[in-house]
Amino acid sequence: MAGAGKTTVGSALAQELDWAFVDSDHLIEAVYGARLQDITDALGKRAFLDAEATVVCAIRAQRTVIATGGSVVYRPAAMAHLASLGPLVFLDVPFQLIEERVARNPERGIAMNPGESLRDIFDERQALYSRYARVHCPALESPQACARWIRANLPPHSLDPRG
Predict the structure, then answer these.
(1) Which long-range contacts (CB under 8 A, 24 or more apart) does 145-153 make?
(2) With the C-alpha atoms ordered 137, 77, 55, 47, is the resulting torsion angle positive or negative?
């Protein structure tokens, strides 16, 4: 979810693992040459989700922590591709904290239909995040503490340098 700390915790996890780090939102901005919010506004939710899935499905990476946009969970093909690259981690953050963080950064790109509220999206996505994630991190501590928690709770084979 927007404001969960995906980029911050992902970057800390990449450092913890000594791996590369990729933020798929930045890749989308690079492809379109525009800010994420401008892209979502121009395309609309459905077309943005399709574009996001196309970019995510093009990622070919090993030993890389990938922070995705929270809306990637709407496209099963994107989620299957990400799962093929490694375990999916859900940063479990309560709605009140998400709401506070999003309010501090209103320019953050969030794929929403007209009339949808942040709460609507949060509730809708929670079930999807839970369905796809192999690891559920209670992300209430510092990004570094979350990164250490995730590393300790990843399936051991996912840290194997051969795959």
Answers:
(1) 146/5, 146/9, 146/12, 146/13, 146/91, 147/9, 147/12, 147/13, 147/15, 147/16, 148/16, 150/9, 150/13, 150/89, 151/13, 151/16, 151/17
(2) negative
With beta carbons less than 8 A apart as the criterion, state whether 69 and 111 touch: yes
pTM for the model stands at 0.90
Q: Is 163 helix (H, G, I), strand (E, B) or coil?
A: coil
Q: What SS3 state is found at 66?
A: strand
Q: Are 5 and 28 in contact (CB under 8 A)?
A: no
Q: Are 135 and 11 in contact (CB under 8 A)?
A: no
**What is the pLDDT confidence band of residue 105, given thresholds at 50, 70 and 90?**
confident
Instruction: Count up the domains in the chain and report the number.
Output: 1
Torsion of Cα atoms, 46 then 68 then 88 then 22, to 10° = 150
Amino acid at 154: L
- Give the domain CATH number at 23: 3.40.50.300
